[in-house]
Every structure is written in C-alpha cells, then in structure tokens.
Design brief:
This protein is an alpha+beta fold. Helix content is 19%, strand content 38%. Keywords: Membrane, Transmembrane, Transmembrane helix.
Length: 191
Amino acid sequence: MSGSSTRPAEEEGGSPSPVRRMSLYPPPRSTRHTARRRKGWAVAAAVAGAAVVVAGGTAAALVLGPEAERDPGSGSSVPDTFAGTWEGKMIQENEAGEHVTDWDARVRLETGAERGSSEWFTLNCRGSLTLQERDGSRLVFDYVETYDPEDRCVDTSTLTLSEGGAEDTLDARWEATSHDGTTMISTGTLS
C-alpha cells in the first residue's frame, strides 16, 4: 500500500494507542464545588455585616447612654410618658369662647411609634394621628378622619397633647375648621 493511512493503528494491525482522540483545549473545570464556595463567601459576608451592625449599635448605646434608647429625639416618636390609652371629656367652644358641646375622646399611643389612633365616641368618629412635632413635654399630631358615618366630624385637625397638671394625665387641645369655615377649639384632660 502506498501513501499514509488514516485508519487507526489497531485496525492496521499495530499496537493499540492509549490516546484515541486528542484535544488542543484543556478539559473543562469542574463546577461541582463552585456553588459551595460561593455560598461560603455569602455566609461569611452576611456574618461580617451582622457583626458590624451589632458593634455599631453597641458603640452608639455606650456613647449615647440609656436616654438615647428611651428618647429618640424631637419629632420622631412617642415617648414612654405619653404611651397608653387616654380617655376624657373635651369641651368645645366657638371663636367667641361660647360653649358649643361636650364630647368624649379616646387616644391610643404606643412608645416609639410615629402614629396613633383617636376616637371621638360621643360623635361616632374615628381617625388616625400622625406625630408632626415633639417639643419637650408636648406632642402635636395631625388628625385625619377614617370613620364618620353621620358626617358630623371634620376631615382634618390638629391635636396637641402635653403633660397634665395632675399625675398620669394629659392636657389635650383639639383645633379644627368646620365644613362652613368656623374655627373650633376643644380642650380637656385625658387620663
């Protein structure tokens, strides 16, 4: 036979070759452990992040002291002294200071919250309170009506609460403008 043969050596009667096919490219790298390595890095990063948060909180507590945890600052949330359910009678007067009506009120506030709820149950009205200002022993809330089936209450108003003269009481001042434009002010003591 003349020329070169393209058949494998074993077919030609030669010794079998241990390498049958050769590639010029390296074999693919195993991905069997890649996911495990990625998961390990993610867990390590999460643990490191948590350690930084805990260390930062501990450092802040040590620097700022126990008052910082209880009193987060002006305008931010309800302090312990205002937290709870408060009830009392509100006395409403017109702009001339003449008596208009009395109504019963209930206010619910939670420590650290920025919102609360109120109910003017004599008038069958309910609303949400959003803290707008915190100045020492005084809190100012925006009131937005959420329930008024008889259309007797105003849609929005301002409720100011301050520490009362007697222990475990709050002085309340409710200011609103009626549907016809009349300014209404109600004051009372909640306990």
